[in-house]
Amino acid sequence: MRGHDDKEEIIGDEKENIGGNDNGSSGREIVVSTGGEESIGSSQERVLARLKLEDLPGKVEEDDGVFRIGKGLLPDGKVDLDYLEKLKPITVEELKKICRPIDPDDYLKEYCPAGVEKMDTELWNKYYADIQASDGGFDIFNYPGHCPMATVRPMTSAIMGNEMMRDMVIGMSKTALSQYGDTHPEDAPYEFVDIEWVTGYPCATWMYNITFRARSVDNGDIKSFRARVYDKVQCWEVLLCYPKEDRLTRSVES
């Protein structure tokens, strides 16, 4: 008997169930073996051919080395012999039910906020263009609305309307600005002025894209800065911080 943790990849082929099923209906019996040439078969059979042995439900090894796809294993991974006698292979028709194609309409619903029935393609193109043009989503001015596929979200109003969240984002900005000063001693020191806007996206906790203004201590000039800060709950990790005009200038030059 081959072990339950066997990692060997299997090749799918099929053989005709000449006698038909016990219920009198004819059908093909899907067989997965550990050797031989890969048959062309149906799309479902080709899917099975790519599976690993440990992924197949109810696999049973017979004397001829053939693994049949059954209905299920016991919790400990073993098959009771009495149950084995009643175990029937999965048919092509049953497999088709399991492997039904994805409904495109269901997929497109992921792009629709609540109450919206049709994806706005033009708006989504602008949304993705905003993300690409602003270093991963600092400037989101075309937002489709809250839905699974709109991961980067504008959050300025929600954050600035909540005192605790506002203080947190200001603290993140000051931390990022301090780290920028440490890594760019040649640049004049800057002091935080105010928040311009914020976007973010969930990732275990939250990642914040903060655009804020800071004033040069030397000459009073004000610059917009961008900072990407990961909220680790107990601490913040500043992933990047830079003057916004520097990145825009480099983009134009390139």
Helix-strand blueprint:
Elements: E1 11-17, E2 27-33, H1 43-50, E3 59-61, E4 66-69, H2 81-86, H3 92-98, H4 104-108, H5 121-133, E5 153-154, H6 156-160, H7 163-183, E6 190-203, E7 205-216, E8 222-231, E9 236-243, H8 244-253
Antiparallel strand pairs: 1-2, 2-4, 3-4, 5-6, 6-7, 7-8, 8-9
Note down, in words, how this protein is organized.
- InterPro entries: MS5.
- This protein is of the alpha+beta class.
- It has three domains: about 10-100, no CATH class; about 105-155, no CATH class; about 155-254, Nuclear Transport Factor 2, Chain: A.
- About 30% of the residues lie in helices and about 25% in strands.
- It has eight helices and nine strands.
- The protein has helices spanning about 45-50, 80-85, 90-100, 105-110, 120-135, 155-160, 165-185, 245-254, and strands spanning about 10-15, 25-35, 60, 65-70, 155, 190-205, 205-215, 220-230, 235-245.
- The strands form two sheets. The protein has a five-stranded antiparallel β-sheet. It has a four-stranded antiparallel β-sheet with strand order 1-2-4-3.
- Strand 8 (about 220-230) and strand 9 form a beta hairpin.
Q: What's the total number of strands?
A: 9
Number of helices: 8
Please give the largest β-sheet.
5 strands, antiparallel
- Give the H and E element order: EEHEEHHHHEHHEEEEH
- Determine the structural class based on helices, strands and strand pairing: alpha+beta
- For the record, the CATH class of the largest domain is Alpha Beta
Count structural domains.
3
CATH architecture of the largest domain: Roll
**How is the largest sheet built, in terms of strand order?**
5-6-7-8-9
Uncertain stretches of 5 or more adjacent residues:
1-41, 50-72, 249-254
- CATH level 3 topology of the largest domain: Nuclear Transport Factor 2, Chain: A
**Termini separation:** 62 Å
Shape: elongated
Task: Please indicate the percent range of residues in DSSP E strands (runs of 2 or more).
Answer: 25-35%
Alpha carbon gyration radius: 29 Å
Mean pLDDT: 73
Helix proportion of residues, in percent?
A: 25-40%
